[in-house]
């Protein structure tokens, strides 16, 4: 696995084209995109700061990939404005290509090209590329260098697409589902590489269906649903939001909650949200903790993992969208 310090420095030279009015490398204002009568993106505002990892989360059809493709210049919004590194991604696309890396969903490689040749060709277009051999080694592709793209596994294709996106030392990288189809070991390698990019000052914008991935990697994230933002913040901010009124604990499943409910204040709720996982909703204070532990003692059971202000990112996601996050 590569260490975080293994990623060579990216080009950081200043440019008169960069919008230096703030730290926003990506700035969207009132972006709308329709496909027929379907609104894919609905008045979206978004700021991504320099040298951060920003994750877009949302159910299928929420507008994540459409948003990314508009930022990359592949699609044009019907209304609103987009500035990428201070430039228009459509009108100034050629100039942006020198400073921006793109990892397309599904890889986007040439079927008959060999992996090593493909990465070498992309590197040749950069004035100061990373060493392709080093990058192939970091991503576990050295043994597949002479394998054609179509014969690579899905995970290998994803890793090669990532290599092509970053080999030119971009200032900004867009990654659409970067670890889709990868095994656990490859996923950790990619996570470490993305973390290394951030430490080197590269801005990373990614979409993902892996909630753990977003929680581990993202400095900030946005949850979108039906093309509109429903929440933005750091993972910890979103997981703490509203959790001050929640007490969670584990105990044997199917316990009789009627005595606990009757002992709690009238407006409180107590439910078994999953087998053996219990949730008490209401303002949590020492008296509530005492009530719960007394109830457990009466039933002669031990409550474990009792916690306040701890929600998973999945809890937040389901609260906001009402749907599971599926690939």
From TrEMBL:
Membrane topology per record: Peripheral membrane protein
UniProt keyword Transmembrane helix, yes or no: no
Location, primary (coarse class): membrane
Compartments, record wording: Cell membrane
High-level lineage: Bacteria, Bacillati, Actinomycetota, Actinomycetes, Mycobacteriales
GO biological process: response to antibiotic; transmembrane transport
Organism: Mycolicibacterium arabiense
CDD domains given in the database record: ABC_DR_subfamily_A
One term under GO cellular component: plasma membrane
Protein name in UniProt: ABC transporter ATP-binding protein
């Amino acid at each position: 696995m590569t260490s975080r310090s293994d990623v060579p420095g990216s080009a950081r030279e200043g440019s008169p084209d960069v919008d230096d009015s703030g730290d926003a490398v990506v700035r969207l204002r009132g972006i709308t995109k329709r496909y027929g009568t379907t609104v894919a993106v609905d008045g979206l505002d978004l700021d991504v700061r320099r040298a951060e990892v920003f994750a877009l989360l949302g159910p299928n059809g929420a507008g994540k990939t459409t948003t990314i493709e508009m930022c990359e210049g592949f699609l044009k919004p019907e209304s609103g404005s987009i500035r990428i590194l201070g430039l228009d991604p459509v009108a100034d696309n050629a100039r942006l290509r020198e400073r921006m890396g793109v990892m397309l969903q599904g890889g986007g490689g040439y079927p008959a090209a060999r992996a090593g040749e493909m990465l070498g060709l992309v590197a040749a277009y950069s004035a100061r590329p990373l060493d392709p051999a080093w990058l192939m080694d970091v991503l576990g592709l050295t043994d597949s260098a002479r394998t054609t793209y179509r014969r690579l596994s899905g995970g290998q294709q994803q890793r090669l697409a990532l290599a092509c996106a970053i080999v030119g030392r971009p200032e900004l990288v867009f990654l659409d589902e970067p670890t889709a189809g990868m095994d656990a070991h490859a996923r950790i390698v990619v996570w470490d590489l993305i973390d290394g990019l951030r430490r080197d000052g590269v801005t990373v914008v990614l979409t993902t269906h892996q909630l753990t991935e977003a929680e581990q990697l993202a400095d900030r994230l946005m949850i979108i649903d039906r093309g509109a933002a429903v929440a933005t913040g750091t993972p910890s901010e979103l997981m703490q939001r509203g959790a001050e009124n929640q007490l969670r604990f584990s105990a044997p499943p199917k316990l009789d909650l009627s005595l606990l409910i009757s002992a709690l204040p009238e407006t409180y709720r107590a439910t078994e949200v999953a087998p053996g996982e219990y949730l008490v909703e209401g303002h949590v204070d020492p008296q509530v903790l005492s009530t719960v532990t007394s109830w457990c003692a009466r039933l002669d059971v031990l409550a474990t993992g009792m916690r306040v202000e701890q929600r998973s990112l999945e809890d937040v996601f389901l609260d906001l969208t009402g749907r599971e996050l599926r690939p």
